[in-house]
Input
Amino acid sequence: MAQAFFGGVHPHDMKAATNEKAIEQLAPPAVVVIPMSMHFGAPCTPLVKAGDHVKVGQKIGEFHGLGAPIHASVSGTVKAVEPPPPIPWAATSTSVVIENDMQDEVSEEVQAPADPNALSVEEMVEIVKNAGIVGMGGATFPTHVKITSGIGKVNTVIINGAECEPYITGDHRTMLERPEEIIGGAKFLAKMFGVDKVVIGVEDNKRNGIDAMNKVIAEQKAPVVVEPLRCRYPQGGEKQLCQAITGRQVPPGGLPADIGCAVFNINTTCAIYRALTTGMPVVRKIVTVSGSGVVEPKNLECPIGTPVSNLLDACGGLKDGTYKLIAGGPMMGMAQYTADISVAKGTGAILAFCENEEKTVENPQCIRCGKCVSVCPMHLEPLFMYQYASKGMVEELNDAHIMDCMECGACSYICPARMHLTHMFKTGKQLVKDKAAADRAAAEAKKKAEEAKEAAAK
Output
């Protein structure tokens, strides 16, 4: 039985422009620019150099520590290994630029398992790791790490099909067009975690998607249950989805694994299925291109590293008066200053908006209505956090648990004064991180000074 989580808002879903449009394959780009940082963790080290010939699925970036490998999404010639592209999630990494030869040669590294169902858990996890699979809903946390850290702790595996952000419909279309991949991936996850069933949480504005998956579940007699959920943002947040499905609450500062849950995005689940059945790593991404500034909104599937400008061109371009371009959804996405950015593993949408939707206020003033407190799904007090962040009050920010903020934007959405709340919380979090780093550096310097003093005394 679906439960309710605290707070949340009910924005217009704005999905009508694309929810009935099938996923289209984008015309092959002449060049792809693949960032070496498309995951939570340190950037990958490039394994190729200018002049090298690469094939689809060939590993071109190796991770160290926490991360996931990166693969060529097209075949062709490496033109450059260059400085960071102008995108926030790859600001400190290099990019591999590949000129597409349009041959789609598949690398010899791509090997399908002889019998996917005969694979051991260890073998499946290794394939997932080598396939470079991350949280493709936007979090980009390495999937193999989530699996290995959850085995033995997790008793509830949840597939996140909420897709609660307005405009985005890629997961919905995947439910309709590729339900076999979703259910197949869910069965593999059930085996890896040793659970008797997997739950797929889907908001009830996707009834046809629920029916499509239930049909496959019945045909395959799969150990999967689809749980319809009432529409409420941010239902797709891991902690909120866990509570909605199980009734359990993730403790402050905790993770879903702390309450026995593991959550995977719909397209992450499909990527697991493809890796374990075909051997193909993550080389493509489904992106919703929509918004009032787009001439013909579409759902497009394209190679990783495809310039966003190519996607916009495939949708007829942008309308006159377009003032904002966002990578991601309108609630949590990041505004971009150029279309010369690349599609990454976590890019779920590209949205463009016209001037008549500009609702910002130059000098917003809080009216102390408390609406932001009532909608915060993390039980925080945004109005106080805003004051502390604007005044650089780091200790108070810590006391207010700002690091628990999930930056969902619900407070900014509901605020009648149009305060720039979420933006300020991003700034406040950085203040906390900077202070923690400075404290560590000071403690380390003090320790070294004391050790030097003791050594001199001897």
Observations:
- The chain has 13 helices and 17 strands.
- Residues 183 and 220 are 9 Å apart (CA to CA).
